[in-house]
Write a structure and sequence with these properties.
Blueprint (H helix, E strand, L loop, with lengths): L2 E6 L4 E6 L14 E7 L18 E4 H7 L3 E6 H11 L4 H13 L3
Antiparallel strand pairs: 1-2, 3-4, 3-5
Length: 108
């Protein structure tokens, strides 16, 4: 699983973190990752409408993403993916900015 809660510090604070599905390395900046979601060859086997279809995602760092390109047809840059996700769960950027400020104040 790419998105996990990691216990940090001796006081057992917890923080959501993103890790590469391939090498396991933590992805610290959105610009360092990709989110892939359709394996090559799968699209041509689908018949009829694909509306409503749910696809699992794979998260990779840019180094492993180069390897991943041979396996996946569709992907987002991680920053694009999380921006779209925040809109789809009605989080909005202003609330996201507030959360980021709050997290930085408490040391995350």
């Amino acid at each position: 699983m790419s998105i996990m809660i990691e216990i940090i510090g001796k006081d057992e604070r917890c923080a959501p973190r993103v890790f590469c599905d391939y090498c396991g390395r933590r992805i610290k900046k959105a610009s360092e990752g990709n989110v892939s979601f359709l394996q090559k060859g799968k699209l041509k086997h689908l018949r009829g409408s694909v509306r409503g279809m749910k696809l699992e995602i794979s998260i990779s760092c840019k180094d492993c993403g180069r390897l991943e390109e041979k396996d996946y047809e569709l992907f987002y840059e991680m920053s694009e993916f999380f921006y779209l996700l925040s809109n789809n769960i009605d989080m909005g950027l202003k609330k996201g900015e507030w959360i980021a400020k709050m997290m930085s104040k408490i040391g995350f």
